[in-house]
Amino acid sequence: MELYVWGTGCAAGDLTDRGLTPEKITAFVDSSPNAAEFLGRPVLHPEALRDMEEGLILVASRHTEEIARQAAGLGIREDRLLFLKNNWEAKDRNSAYAAAEGLLPPEQIEALRRAPHLVREPLCISNSPLTQRDLENDYVRLRTLELLCRELDAVPGAAAELGVYRGAFAACINALLPERRLYLFDSFEGFAEAEAADQAAGLVEAHRNTDEARVLSLLPHPERAVIRKGFFPETARGLEEERFALVSLDADLEESTLQGLRWFWPRLSPGGYLLLHDWDNPRLPGVKRALKRYEEELRRRLPAVPLCDVCGTLVLTRGDDPK
Fold it and tell me: CA 182, CA 161: separation in Å to the nearest integer?
């Protein structure tokens, strides 16, 4: 039986790192591929699978509803698809919207019509710049980011992300803080070879699968972004006097994370936030080790709150202590 994997990102890389060898995969599928091959296998456009009747497609992407619609349009039967992420569907129980017209305010009916969530929307959320597609990735992480950004009005400084990858989280920061300069630090070519030497092949290959043009195309306010391409902290030269209100630290590996903490924490404005992604991710234990090492250097614990998001983000916040 032919086996296809729809997606060429981290989820696809993780799939191969956890036991599905690339040799068993006929091809990967991607609507916007960055390369003709991924992990040594060809990358096909979805159109190549039109009217597929045999074989199996493993959907390794968070955009499940979008891919389901695309597959249906290509004549691919549902029993040919196996969704590895978001493999559930929250259905709207209501059918009496027409009867409610004239009885309930239009805005209340519209709120009920919105796509339901297993996690209910916070009452304080309205007129959000985040889209449904944004929230598919990690609802808790993204809504927390939104609430944190609302607390930054009186906090000076730029925003930054170290470890941009394909730019999904950077695009949300850019949408939520449209007036702030956004520094984006990434090699856009993957991890440094020395640090990635002992990492799983799928993880390493997935992080090569990006480029800065793709990231900029996702940003709603690209004019506010400053790309710092290369390996950190060399790419931060000249910014020593900059201060930051919000930092996303998503470097995945121990040494890069430690370098990020050493550089950004002293430059975080009082009242600012540093989001340490993958802090409680069992597949990337180096992130938690890096924080432990940094706190040992400081000889104190940093004030922080863990999130129950997918990859275990830790939110660190800066008080008035200049150290």
Answer: 8
Residue 29, amino acid: V
Structure pTM? Answer: 0.87
* Domains within the chain, CATH numbers bracketed: 3-83 (3.40.50.720), 132-317 (3.40.50.150)
Residues 6+ apart with CB under 8 A from 294: 258, 261, 262, 265, 302
* pLDDT tens string 29-73: 999 888 899 999 999 999 999 988 889 999 999 888 889 999 999
The string of pLDDT tens digits covering residues 83-136 is: 988 767 667 778 888 888 888 888 888 877 776 666 777 888 888 999 988 888
Residue 29's DSSP bridge partners are: 6, 44
DSSP annotation string for 233-255: TGGGTT-TT--EEEEEE---SHH
What's the rounded Cα separation, in Å, for the pair 260 and 201? 24
